[in-house]
Write a structure and sequence with these properties.
Blueprint: E1 5-9, H1 14-25, E2 29-34, H2 42-51, H3 56-59, E3 69-71, E4 75-79, H4 87-94, E5 99-102, H5 111-114, H6 116-137, E6 141-147, H7 171-190, E7 193-199, E8 202-203, H8 212-221, E9 225-228, E10 235-236, E11 239-240, H9 241-253, E12 262-267, E13 273-274, H10 275-286, E14 291-294, H11 310-316, H12 324-338
Parallel strand pairs: 1-2, 1-5, 2-4, 5-6, 6-7, 7-12, 8-11, 9-14
Antiparallel strand pairs: 3-4, 10-13
């Protein structure tokens, strides 16, 4: 396989870290960018970067527009805001980039109710900046993160890419829907390939501390109650991080249908799990019961997610391999080691 130089945005994030690591293992060159914001514990972000060979004292420096931290010959890191209209275009001008994988975004459904401006800056202005850079730099393919949240509270399961997604119920979901529309416009106008990936509830080692897996584990270990919304009557298509990354890498590196420049794919496990069963798996892995605080439905939340992955299976032979029992066990092992 020909060696590529790939820009990965959000390289210190959960999925971005794994994608960068996999690309390096496959022999490709990675230019990683991340603003390392304080939405959650920055120590975790720096620890992920350390796994990629980038030490904290290097990564935390505010670098100028054309400089970067080099690790050997194949990994570079630049601390940068995605929405920086001077630094990002300059990066494209000063580095020979073949492909772009945009995984940087302000994440979190509930946080979008508290700080909507953060979502406008990163998910809208930032994504437009990426599209403009791809356009002016002749990038042939952009793979970017969308979300299962675009399906809203749809009862038509499993969720298919052809479904109407005009009714998001959180600002986060609305920004992801907007990303898809923006990508469609740029593919149509400027003739480069855009692939949107609708991720379904990603979990696993190195996961974000604001996600259910971390919150539940921490609470159970410390004898604190866990918040169980909608009285537990929720289900999620929990998808293990390595299965997600296999789909990202395939869409990024493998040839695709050249007759269509704009594409969308679900990436999920296609095996929804009830929230209470998910909690039970964590309890068993910890050998400790949870104290459950049963609560009503949370604003912006959806009752169920369920991915139809036929399309990505057909095009890229995508096949999730990790069930929730194994995935939870892997996470708990990592959690105990990382948090001591």
């Amino acid at each position: 396989m020909e060696t590529k130089t790939i820009l990965v945005t959000g390289a210190a994030g959960f999925i971005g870290f794994y994608v960068s690591k996999q690309l390096l293992e496959l022999g490709h060159n990675v230019i990683g960018i991340d603003n390392i914001n304080d939405y959650y514990d920055i120590d975790l972000k720096y620890a992920r970067l350390a796994e990629l060979g980038i030490q904290r004292e290097q990564a935390e420096k505010e670098l100028n527009m054309s400089s970067s931290v080099n690790v050997g010959d194949r990994m570079q890191f630049i601390k940068m805001n995605l929405e920086d209209r001077e630094a990002l275009p300059n990066l494209f001008k000063t580095h020979a980039i073949d492909l772009v994988c945009n995984l940087a975004a302000q994440a979190g459904v509930r946080y979008s109710l508290e700080n909507p401006n953060a979502y406008a800056d990163s998910n809208l202005i930032g994504f437009l900046n990426v599209l403009e850079c791809c356009r002016h730099s002749g990038i042939s393919k952009l793979v970017y993160a969308s979300s299962s949240s675009v399906y809203g509270n749809s009862d038509a399961v499993p969720f298919q890419e052809t479904a109407n997604v005009d009714h998001p119920i959180s600002l986060y979901a609305a920004t992801k829907k907007a990303n898809e529309l923006m990508a469609h416009t740029y593919s149509h106008l400027y003739g480069f390939e855009t692939i949107g990936l609708r991720f379904f509830t990603v979990y696993g080692p190195w996961g974000r501390p604001d996600m259910a897996m971390c919150l539940f584990t921490d609470a159970i270990i410390n004898d604190k109650p866990i918040k169980v919304f909608n009285n537990g009557d929720l289900s999620r298509d929990f998808t293990y991080i390595e299965d997600i990354v296999s789909g990202v890498i395939a869409t990024l590196l493998e040839p695709s249908d050249s007759s269509q420049l704009y594409k969308l794919y679900n990436i999920g496990n296609s095996q929804p799990v009830k929230l209470l069963d998910y909690i039970e798996a964590i309890e068993k892995a910890l050998d400790k019961p949870a104290i459950k605080d049963m609560l009503p439905m949370q604003a912006g939340d959806v009752k169920q997610t369920y991915a139809d992955v036929t399309k990505i299976k057909t095009q890229y032979q995508y096949q999730p391999k990790t069930d929730v029992i194994q995935g939870v066990s892997n996470f708990i092992t990592w959690y105990k080691n990382y948090y001591n």
